[in-house]
Amino acid sequence: MEKKFMWIAGPCVIESEEMVLEMAGKLKEMAGRLNLDYYFKASFDKANRTSIRSFRGPGIEEGLEILQKVKDTWNVKIATDIHEPWQAEKAARTADIIQIPAFLCRQTDLLAAAAKTGKKINVKKAQFLAPWDMANVVGKLEESGNRDLMLCERGTSFGYNTLVVDMTGIVEMKKLGYPVVFDATHSVQKPGGRGDATGGNREYVEYLAKAALAAGADALFMEVHPDPDHALSDGPNMVPLNELESMMQRLIRVYDAVHE
């Protein structure tokens, strides 16, 4: 059986129940047309925003209730991130993928708690780590009893307020024996680039995603929004919903060429 291209996509944060329900329905329909293995992603809390005044989301209790409603309404798989060990068990009741944020990928207690849920773990490589340093992250997850892992490339710090993507890092992380996901939207961030908020260059998302898939990335993560310029988090790097399907059609051609 042909292996489907895994696609993790959704808004950065839960802005409202109405918004994520509408987005999930549209994205699932799109994934069906494109024959993708789809996971809806949204965060219940953005604990690492640049400013204390930035919107963080509804919090874990209300946020997971909304994500469960998305799952029940659309029969869609869910990916969401956690920031503290105690959140792992609660998130696992709804999430099919538990995501570890890049800044926290060395946090042993967080990794262990996520691993012990038995759910698929998508752990993002920190902006300050070399690809081969992820061997220690993998070791912590394996020792905690979980081998259903994915490693995620999301860019590397390059001076101040800038990220670059070393495509050879995808090759290096694949040597660790697990699928590699490319985070196409966080890779175009300019962290703190707006002083009290993160900037970004969403026009580069497609170019980097094509390069990552050509380098052998197994799956694609991207954040999308119906109106990124008015999003409550990460707007500058999110893909506009009305541009998404044509972009994905082009990216699928690259994926298929590599995996034929």
What does it look like?
With 260 residues, this protein is an alpha/beta fold. It has a single domain (5-259), classed as Alpha-Beta Barrel (TIM Barrel), CATH 3.20.20. It has eight helices and 13 strands. It has helices at residues 17-34, 60-74, 87-92, 108-116, 134-143, 168-174, 205-214, 241-259, and strands at residues 5-10, 36-41, 77-81, 97-100, 120-124, 149-153, 156-157, 163-164, 180-183, 189-190, 199-200, 219-225, 239-240. The strands form three sheets. An eight-stranded parallel beta barrel has the order 1-2-3-4-5-6-9-12, surrounded by seven helices. A two-stranded antiparallel ribbon has the order 7-8. The chain has a two-stranded antiparallel sheet with strand order 10-11. Helix 4 (108-116) packs across helix 5 (134-143). The longest helix has 19 residues, at 241-259. It starts with a strand and ends with a helix.
Summary?
With 260 residues, the protein is of the alpha/beta class. It is built from eight helices and 13 strands.
